[in-house]
Write a structure and sequence with these properties.
The protein is α/β, with parallel strands linked by helices. About 35% of the residues lie in helices and about 20% in strands. The strands form five sheets. The chain has a seven-stranded mixed beta sheet, sandwiched between helices. Strand 1 and strand 2 form a beta hairpin. The structure holds fe (ii) ion.
Amino acid sequence: MEVPLRVLGINAVFHDLAAALVVDGVTVAAAEEERFSRRKHGKQPVPFSTWEVPEKSAAWCLEHAGLVPADLDAVAYSYDPNLATEPADDITAGEWEGLRTLYARRAPLFLRAALPGLDPDLVRFVPHHVAHAASAYLAAPFRSSSVLVMDGRGERASHLAGQTTDGELEVLAAQRLPHSLGLMYEELTDHLGFRRSSDEYKVMAMASYGEPRFLPELRELVRATYDGGFVTQRIDWNVFVRRLGKEAEWGSEHADLAASVQVRLEEVVLDLLYWLHERTGDGELTMAGGVALNCVANSRLAEQGPFERIWIQPASGDSGTALGSAMYVAHEIGDAVEPMQTAALGRGWSDEELGAWLRTAHVAHERPDDIAEAVAEVLAGNGVVAWFQGRSEYGPRALGHRSLLAHPGYTENLDRMNEIKGREQFRPVAPMVLAEKAAEIFSGPLPSPYMLFTHRVRKGWEERVPAVVHVDGTARIQTVDGFEEPLVARMLQAFEQRTGLPIVVNTSLNTAGRPMVDDPRDALECFGSAPVDVLALGPYLIRRSTFNRRDRP
Ligand SMILES: [Fe+2]
């Protein structure tokens, strides 16, 4: 048998369309479609859009590796329509769920249309939560682990608990729909006037302003069943607080509800963890699924849960299933799958290419001896910097490749960053910190290279870095290792030399409602439309002129 070597992973079924390419067991590229199409989340997660596949990101993954569709050995699609609701005679029944199944079955043909030359017979369906799980256990640096997926929904389930050794997965429990911790949180997000399946992190931020006074009621409605699963009863949210319209002002009662649901979520997941640990006795836990992006819950699991170490897939939302399904099929076929080394798996440009973009745009720029030193100087002078370096990140977090940076020492920089981005003032911004200094300043799981945990800010530091300390005294840090991220680390060191602070404010390079900047054009457009002082595009520095010469006499 010929050993297949090149596996393309596809996430297309709900939203967060994405593609990933695994060659000889190594992840060579992974990217989300929204970064190409500039449409946040790629598409609406409705049955009618199931035919849409990540054509631009998939084409780029192949191009990046110098491949054409005919070179592929397998295509992994992160949903198995054979496990899903069978279409009835009337496909409009069950909110058109049957249409989703029909479209998913035809995904091989949609993929062939998007990637001419692709053999549709190469497409393999990977169960959605197996794909999420594989994005954790095969990507993590552990030989064996317990694995927990907590999601909105897959084919018919919302969760998976299992154990893996040498890449083989044994499923121990899977909670069937309609019970779903992810959907419960989504419904609350919707009730509080935000976009469901998108803005859950805003609810998490709001929760820190509230008191969990509805906890007794929620403990009745949402609970673990001690067989590995859980119950989420239908909740009439209006019993607690009135529904908020879009953009409406929220009050303490809304924050109290958010806090109550957040705490109840943490309690139930802790119960699930103890159940899992009792069966496996493992020291390591790997996690994925949308709920695994809840960094407040993750910190509590790390602190109070039974596992010694937790590794979470940074692209834990559905985009990560492109990578998970590709890794799963690569392993199934017989490849040794290498753990994930970095989230910087997207597009990048050479210095020459970036220079050409600037010349085309007729943008005045300079090339300092060391961009890290030059940016540190601007930051130390309290300038805001758009930082575009290397390959873009896979997953929802900016990790020092497409970032907006600022001085953490000024309280007003929180509002300033939120204003630049045009987003809600209650949203926190996060610090990036030199890995070797993190333990002095923050307590919590370390290292934390993917911003998936919150940390307590140690005494004496809150006043020194007020812009990055959340209202509850925590910060969602990214630790920067000089070996893994030499340029970012050098910039942080240069900033520390000037200010005594080994920390800068880091938020994603985009404005509200738009996908993160990905290519140089996006960077120039973002810089052109937002009051950012400096754009560091690779080795080039573009300064905003504070006056227009033509207006002067
Ligand atoms: Fe999912």
